Amino acid sequence: MEDTVKCVTCTLGRLSTDYLSIKTCKTILDLGRQEVVISERSMGIAMYVLEVLGLTVSIGGKRILKNINLNIRKGEVVLLLGPNASGKSTLVQSIIGNPKYKIEQGKILFFGEDITNLPMEARVLKGIGLAYQLPPKIKGVKVRDLIIHMLRKRGITTNIMDELEKYASLLRVQHLLDREINVGFSGGEMKRVELLFTLMQRPKLALLDEIDSGVDVENVALMGKVINEHLVRNETSALIITHTAQIAKHVKADRAYVMIDGTIRCEGDATKIVETILQFGFERCIKCARWGIWV
Amino acid sequence: MGVREEFKEKARKASTKPATYGPDINLDYYIQRLKRIEEDAEAINVKDPKVQGKLESVGIDVFEAERSGSYYQVDQQVLSYYSKIPGVKVLTLEEAIENHWDEIKEYFWKAVPVDKDKYTATVELYGRGGYVIIVDDGVKIKQPLQTCLLLYRREVLQAPHNIIILGENAEAHIITGCTFLREPTGVHLGVSEFYVGRGSKLTFTMIHGWGLQQHVRPRTGVIVEDGGEYISHYVVLSPPGTLQTYPQVKLKGKNTRAHVSSVCVGLGKSVVDIGSEIVLEGEGASGEIISRSLGKDNSTIIARGRIVGVAERAKGHLECMGLLLSNSAVIEAVPQLSAHLDDVELTHEASIGRIAEDEIYYLMSKGFTYDEAKSIIVRGFMSVEIKGLPKALKDMIDSVVTIISSKL
């Protein structure tokens, strides 16, 4: 029996509050997913750039993330939405391998390879780039020098200067290249410089943590344009974290996840989820009928 | 020379006077030894590859391609000295007293009192050598002059008296490198008196690399006349057992400027007491003291800074930063401001801490290892923005600091 309050975000578009039918639906999804993974493995190619499987993470003994499942396909742009302090940053910090975050259970696969226990810098070398939500100040170290150092370390020496000038000019941060990292930068300047670092890293997977928070409308649009035109290419996928969903107005996202209180509450079409959240807020997700089934 | 005898007399009276700061050194032992150390004929060739490497580590270019002149002294013995530039004299103290007394007499023991303490007294009584650099009015030297003071023999005392005199509207850049060649023992005392004439500019870059059984007590005084500018940057790459220095810069003239910065690394059980003072005496004088201390192992660093404002529209800023790289090192910051007029503006900031983990993780997220991230932060901490220093000297300091930060 179809329910009257249909969830607009469901990937299958026909979920109801009827417990049995949802359960069936989830089972189908899970089975389907496993089949895909099995068929990929048998062909020797990974369809997913990133797979987070049953991840539970704690900081200083406090459990922050509970049984997170999330994936990103090649070239896909995925939004991770959720209210403040729901654990979004914890998830990206765990994906990049920040040692402060302890993985208690679960796995992180990058192109099918288990990277759960790899050190941070090894993950970065494999192609994960992270733009920080609140990057620290690094006194005495200039933006330009660190970018050059970062690329040379990875053996990239060609076109560095041209590319740096090009992206810096696109992001309007040329005036910051010879300044100490984040010393005296405005909120928006910090975010644009973080995006510059990410662009220059040429990652296979870009994790962008709240790059739109505290940024004026014009610069959110600017960053969205740069992400669309220069970051996300065939070879680059992105996970964009946002609690305001402002950046979603400017970036063409394929799918979205909603995280609430350390768990993934929803996954589905980006446009529909963003629409729902902009209209009803995260309240709608908290009350969503699917809650309880996905956990 | 009666005048000289007066100085000697004052020195004799001060020969047991302890310094205001820093551990006391028993100089008698070294003075007695000095008499026993014969001037051996052993020649030191600065172009010997081993010596060369050591000198390069303190900024000395033995091939002198980009230098306007050089001065080398080993222990109490002057090796060589010359100037490539007309209007610039590079002399030894003895030669200057002998042949150019009229040019230096007004400046001899004027910026540093001979009876300041037993170290200045010892320089007058037992010192040999020291460079005297005289730059004539209007002469501007583009490439730096280098002076190099080396310790070589075991438990030796080195006590040079250096004087730099810039006439009016002159400009000079000095790079001084001090280190030891063979024995990491001995005492280095150095008196330096600098005079910056009207509208002149002097930059003084000093790099020290010592051994942990050495003791170092430089005594520096600077006097700057109207419109003059003095910039000094002191890098202690590796500390001696004990080091105490407190250069005093007197901005005597109107609209004078001074920037005095230091970067000091404490290692082993070294005790370093490093400070500077700027006295803003001339109307509109402005001064800045910047110090960066890095404490490793069981070292102790006391970073002092004092700015005294006694003139109208005088401005001063003091910045004292410490970074602890070990749990058993101690850093003490002692910033002092002293204003004597309501028109004076003096500010200071001081902080001591350890490397923030978040900064390390941030850099690791850009692809650096833990150790690389740490050394980037240390390297950044050690870099001081110095306006007005020639690019060659900036680059030289950068490379010296990069090498040392990678080893910390």
Low-confidence stretches of chain B: none
Overall 3D shape of chain A: globular
- Indicate the CATH topology of the domain at 74-101 and 114-287 in chain A: Rossmann fold
Radius of gyration of chain A: 19 Å
Biggest sheet statistics of chain B: 11 strands, mixed
What's the CATH class of the domain at 74-101 and 114-287 in chain A, please? Alpha Beta
Instruction: Give helix and strand order of chain A, one letter per element, not per position.
Output: HEEEHEEHEEHHEHEHEEEHH
Question: How many DSSP H or I helices of chain B?
Answer: 9
CATH architecture of the domain at 74-101 and 114-287 in chain A: 3-Layer(aba) Sandwich
Strand content of chain A: 25-35%
Main sheet properties of chain A: 6 strands, mixed
Number of strands of chain B: 21
The secondary structure category of chain A is alpha/beta
Question: What oligomeric state is this?
Answer: heterodimer
Q: Which chains have the largest interface?
A: A-B, 26 and 22 residues
